[in-house]
Amino acid sequence: MSDIYIPGVKSRFNTDTLIEDLMKVERIPKDRAEKQIETLQTEKGYWQEIGRRVGSLRESVRSLYSFQNPFSERIARSSDESVLTATATRQAVEQERSFSVRQIARADRFLSNPLDTSFRVPEGNYGFKVGGDEISFNYRGGTLKDFTEVLSRRGRGKIQASIVSVEKGTQSLLVESLVTGAENRLSFSGAAEGLARSLGLGEPAEESGDPPLPAKAAVLEAPRTVPAENTAAIAFPEDARNLSANRGMILSFETSTKIIPQDNTVSLPPPGPSIPKTGSISYGGITIENDVSSVPLPEWEAPPPPRRVDDLAILSLRFTDNSSAALPLVGDSSSFVPSKINLDELTGGKTIASMEVVNNNTHRDFSIRNITVVNPAPPPAFKPGNAVSIAQDAIIDMEGIEIKRPSNEISDLIPGVTVIARAPSDRPVTLNVEPDREAVKDAIISMVGNYNRLMAELNVTTRADERVIQELSYLSPEEQSDLRKRLGVFSGDSMLNQFKNGLQQAVSGAYPTQAERDLAMLAQIGIGTDVRRSGATTGYDPSRLRGYLEIDEKVLDAALRKDLPAIQQLFGYDTDGDLIVDSGVAHALEGLSKPYVETGGIVSLKTGTLDSKISQEQRRIATLDRQLEAKEESLKRQYGRMESAYNRMEAMGTSLDNFSRQADSINGRR
Question: What are the residues whose beta carbons fall under 8 Å from the beta carbon of 199, sequence distance 6 or more?
């Protein structure tokens, strides 16, 4: 029988179990080392979690006083966003402006006559022009759909074509410029001109036979005064009527008002009749006077004050069909104020017959002059047949100043503000450029949230008290269970306890500001460890002693509306004028957090030390593994030799027994 130990063969002495039991004892140091590594890795994870919480707090507080702080953000609010909107950058100055959108910028859009679905575009060289940009290409002929795809692809963002089914069973070609502005007219050349004529898109203006429209037509030049409580009708001459019936015309005029002083004389009661003296009689030195005569008068009532009417809706237009349309309210000014009205929004293609002046005011004279119908657009090079829209500039008034731009987005009017005209309107729109208080509020809420999560982490890891976790009602059961695993793991770490106390002092302390009498602490803007909301119960609450912050949103919103500059200084303030923030809540919190999360900081040192210990234990485990492997091999060899020796002895005994029996058998036969 072989004396070599063969693994996997069942031993009669159960040596595998014996060896495994012996190896369990030998593995105890390795098991302890592995458990130590697990403990060290868990502790490292706790420190990393603290580092993440501290890092989140540091980022949120730095954002409150850094160069990109939300206090410098600006937002533009429009009183009517359907008419005008705006965007503001950090460079914008707080201000309020009044705008009137007379017309918005448009681009040429021409629609063809209805075409049969089998219509094919002939081959040729097709040329298009938008402003100063020319686009041309050779087309080999094809369907209308194919032509629109080629034109849109070759249009280079300037021209676009599409098919519109205006009438059932037909198709119409829509060619449109993608560039707004009166100077960016759409015109055709080469085969495109012939196609435009044949499809009813239009024709060159000089060949249309229509005379060009005049630049303007005068209605009234000299001032016309309409006294209080009077009316007047200013007739439009023939040329002004004809021009007013066209699209895109502007009605221009100047108005002024004169306030008539009101008679403030106090009415006194009438003196009544004059009654002569009644006389007297004398006799013997005695004089007897007659009784004084009297006339009973009715009780005097003061006359009512004179009626006063103030009405600035003075002007309206009368059309040739006898209908009318009111013009916007006039400005109340002693000097003449210019006004310009986009007639497209009022006439609807009707012809103006006259301007009606109805002065219902009792103490105001009204004057008007320089009434003119103006054609703002130069004569087009191409007269469209079916114009969906005509290229025109955006025209807006900013507090009486006329602004004209080829685009609806105007970025060179107010520094840092882009004004966007949306639709024409007769009513003025107020645009307010103000701080983005919502962004400031969100940044403050983010800071408070990160502070509370860090404080919760510190309370849990430095206190072995289950109530610390139960107080965090906003946590899910899974999060609470995870926190219980690290409850009190750093209860003996004095550094973390000092850090926690420093955070509490930072958020409860007072800081210098220019308005520090009224605002020097977070509690004054509704942020504190014991902010009492209306309706909240009073009394002892241990959770309020843990350092968590609360927010009273009503107080915070009111403070943001009233004291935004002071709030900015509360979080970060340059006290010595060296352009470096050196005070404030955010500055203090950032100073406390920085040593923990900076490169080579406390968290990095802690996790680095733990990594060294983990590496040391791993090297120890590697050594123990080699020792255990050698020990196990040694035991296997020893027990293998033992079994081999036993097997040899057993085989020898069996041989001796067999020899003895053979000898006995031989002796028996003798």
Answer: 112, 113, 115, 173
| Fold of the CATH domain 213-260+307-377 | Jelly Rolls (2.60.120)
Tokens found for residue 45? 């994870």
Residue 106 gets which letter from DSSP? B
Residue type, 531: V
Contact 317, 323 (CB under 8 A): no
Backbone angles phi, psi at 564, to 5 degrees: -60, -45
- Cβ neighbours of 88 (radius 10 Å): 25
Instruction: Tell me the CA distances in angstroms from 445 to 118, 474, 526, 536, one per residue in order.
Output: 65, 16, 12, 21
Decide: 208 and 383 in contact? Cβ < 8 Å. Answer: yes
Dihedral sign for Cα 521, 527, 529, 530, please: positive
Contact 417, 404 (CB under 8 A): no
Question: Whose CA is closest to 94, among 418, 439, 433, 560?
Answer: 433
CA distance 581 to 516: 17
Q: In the sheet that 401-405 helps form, which strands lie side by side, from edge to edge?
A: 74-78, 429-435, 95-103, 394-398, 401-405
Averaged pLDDT score across all residues of the chain? 86
Position 236, amino acid = F
Q: Which two tokens stand for residue 62?
A: 């730095």
Q: Looking only at Cα atoms, what is the longest distance across the chain?
A: 219
Q: Tell me which residue has tokens 């002065």.
A: 359
d(CA 169, CA 148): 18
Assess whether pLDDT exceeds 50 at residue 535.
Answer: no
The answer to whether 253 and 369 are in contact (CB under 8 A) is yes
Between the CA of residue 69 and those of 72, 354, 467, 555, what are the distances in Å? 6, 58, 37, 22
CA pseudo-torsion sign 218, 405, 109, 429: negative
Q: Is the pLDDT of residue 20 over 60?
A: yes
Backbone angles phi, psi at 384, to 5 degrees: -75, 150
- 8 Å CB contact between 19 and 635: yes
Point out which residues pair with 125 in neighbouring strands. Answer: 138
- The full set of domain ranges for the chain reads 53-69+438-531+542-598, 109-207, 213-260+307-377
Round to the nearest angstrom and report the end-to-end CA distance of the chain: 35
Q: What Rg, from alpha-carbon coordinates, does the chain have?
A: 49
Contact predicate 461/50, CB 8 Å: yes
Q: How far apart are CA 382 and CA 128, in angstroms?
A: 11
Hey, what are 96's tokens? 């309020």
pLDDT score recorded for residue 270: 74
pLDDT at 205 over 70: no
- Cβ atoms within 10 Å of 298's Cβ, excluding its own: 5
The DSSP element (H or E) to which 129 belongs, if any, is strand 124-130
Q: Per-residue pLDDT tens for 418-436?
A: 999 999 987 899 999 999 9
d(CA 460, CA 490): 9
Q: Nearest to residue 141, comparing CAs of 66, 191, 77? A: 191
Give the number of other Cβ atoms within 10 Å of residue 590's Cβ: 22
Contact 105, 407 (CB under 8 A): yes
Count of other CB atoms within 10 angstroms of residue 370: 16
